[in-house]
Design goal:
With 339 residues, the chain is mainly alpha-helical. The two termini are 17 Å apart. About 8% of the residues have low confidence.
Length: 339
């Protein structure tokens, strides 16, 4: 992991994207250098004000990740962000649109629920974001939805994904982080010195200490990058799970609609047959039209059977995919906790 400098931080902030992997990777780097928390916060605020409006929200996502995940190791970032976070909220709120303000409100609600800051700071943040308007308290269901959502918006239930979108999403996961054998080998091959604290007693001089420090920093960077990739993969798999659920729902609705139409058509056949027979008897063509009616009924029944079989296959296929996708997410999350 590279040494800290303000120039290095400015470069990393300029390369920061709104993906969860990018935010988490930089957050881990900042937490590793938490002894420089004051200059980090100073540079963060300066670069926030220089950033384009569409990137400002990402800076606050980064601050949120650093503040919450650094609490286990020390209060440095929570304390150093406190004097600037209110003005940062005001600045981002004034520079962005209503959609961005909703995301800021979501961050603020999480901080309030988890008591990240004292009540006086939270009240100042509310005032900065809402002014004199009082935000409505979120319900439990809204909180659970927010925790499961990604920053990017997903397709609405009324617009199910196309088959090509599902195929493309499945193909993208073929090269996912969890299947990266090369990284698995690199992690497995990490020297024992970076895993056993007891070996620190064997350091006898400055040179060996610096060598061990370099190995530890490289190992931390490797694990931080892989952790970020796994987090992004989990988000991708969650989104795929939602896409499969929407697609499955759409197929069920289509099947129900087709069955309803077939039932309506089937209920009209006897009446049509009787009327046709009456006219055909008058015209001497009863036998010919009766044959045509039987043929039409047979075709309709074949069509109905074909639709039913196709929908049943799709339901089975996507139910299996949905199950394995959820199973894989739980395994990857367990693996991340072990790492």
């Amino acid at each position: 992991m590279s040494a800290f400098s303000e120039a290095a931080l400015e470069k990393k902030l300029s390369e920061l994207s709104n993906s969860q992997q990018s935010v988490q990777t930089l957050s881990l780097w900042l937490i590793h250098h938490r002894k420089h928390s004051r200059p980090i916060v100073t540079v963060w605020e300066r670069e926030l004000r220089k950033a384009k409006p569409n990137r400002k929200l990402t800076f606050l996502y980064l601050a949120n990740d650093v503040i919450q995940n650094s609490k286990r190791k020390g209060p440095e970032f929570t304390k150093d962000f406190a004097p600037v976070i209110v003005e940062a909220f005001k600045h981002v709120s004034s520079e962005t649109d209503e959609s961005c303000k909703k995301h800021l409100g979501r961050v603020l609600s999480i901080w309030e629920e988890r008591s990240v800051y004292e009540n006086d700071v939270l009240e100042q943040l509310k005032q900065a974001l809402y002014g004199d308007k009082k935000p409505r308290k979120r319900t439990y269901e809204q909180i659970k939805v927010d925790e499961n959502e990604n920053c990017s918006s997903l397709g609405s239930p009324s617009e199910p994904p196309q088959t090509l979108d599902l195929v493309r999403a499945l193909q993208d996961l073929e090269n996912a982080a969890s299947g990266d054998a090369a990284v698995h080998q690199r992690i497995a091959s990490l020297p024992v010195e970076v895993q056993e604290v007891s070996l620190l007693d064997k350091i006898t001089d400055k040179e060996s200490g610096e060598r061990l420090s370099k190995m530890v920093e490289d190992a931390c960077m490797l694990l931080a990058d892989y952790n970020g990739r796994l987090a992004a993969e989990i988000d991708d798999r969650k989104q795929l799970t939602r896409m499969l659920a929407d697609f499955l729902r759409c197929q069920k609705e289509a099947l129900a609609e087709k069955e309803h139409k077939l039932e309506v058509n089937h209920s009209t056949w006897p009446l049509t047959g009787n009327i046709s027979s009456g006219f055909c008897t008058l015209r001497g063509r009863d036998e010919q039209n009766s044959m045509k009616l039987n043929q039409a009924q047979e075709k309709m029944m074949q069509s109905r059977d074909a639709v039913n079989m196709r929908c049943i296959r799709l339901l089975l296929c996507f139910t299996v995919l949905l199950f394995y996708s959820k199973l894989f997410i739980s395994r990857v999350q367990s693996k991340r906790l072990k790492v």
